[in-house]
Amino acid sequence: MTVPIAVARKAAGARKGAGGRAAAPRARGGAAPKAAPLPPEGTKARQQRDAIEAIKSSRPAQPVDDELAEQPQEPSSPPPASPGGGLAAPAMPAAASTGSGFLLGVFAWAVGLAYLNGGSDGVKKFLAAKFLNKT
After folding, report:
1. What CA–CA distance (Å, rounded) separates 52 from 39?
2. What pLDDT digit, counting tens, does each position of 3-61 carry?
3. How high does pLDDT run on average in the chain?
4. Residue 96 host element (H or E)
5. Nearest 10 degrees: CA dihedral of 25, 31, 37, 41?
6. pTM for the full model?
7. Can you give the residue ranges of every domain in the chain?
8. Phi-psi group of 42: left, alpha or beta (phi > 0 → left; psi -120 to 50 → alpha; rest → beta)
């Protein structure tokens, strides 16, 4: 006959001195930390500590249940798809975008200079020389 772990723990804790442990409930994570002495009244440290304690006391208590901790959690849902339905574009580093913008500007400047010097025929010659290796 198998006994669930939670039932076995309760039975072991109900007996006094079982395993050298007292029957008192334990705090999660082992022994409770020792409380530090409170700072003097009216100091900023005391005001901060009182504010933290007020926030803690206003929060609802979270139940601690061994049976809930042992249950496997369901996998989280996949991230939502991008609006276009495809994969999102990777972020471009700032240096790469700055460098590519600079090179595009230099190319546009060269095309503009070719247009000013030779008109549309000058641009055609520049592009043919650049991409088709025709001079």
Report:
1. 14
2. 555 555 555 554 444 444 444 555 555 566 677 777 788 899 889 989 999 998 898 87
3. 74
4. helix 94-131
5. -50
6. 0.33
7. 102-130
8. left
Tokens of 93: 């580093």
Give 3-state DSSP helix, strand, coil % of the chain, rounded to 5.
55, 0, 45
Over its C-alpha atoms, the chain yields an Rg (Å, rounded) of: 36
Residues 98 and 108: their CA atoms lie apart, in Å, by 15
Q: Which two tokens stand for residue 85?
A: 């339905």
Q: Please enumerate in sequence order all residues whose Cβ is within 8 A of that of 19, keeping only pairs 6 or more positions apart, or say none.
A: 12
**Token code pair at residue 25:** 């409930």
> Distance (Å, rounded) from C-alpha 92 to C-alpha 39?
51
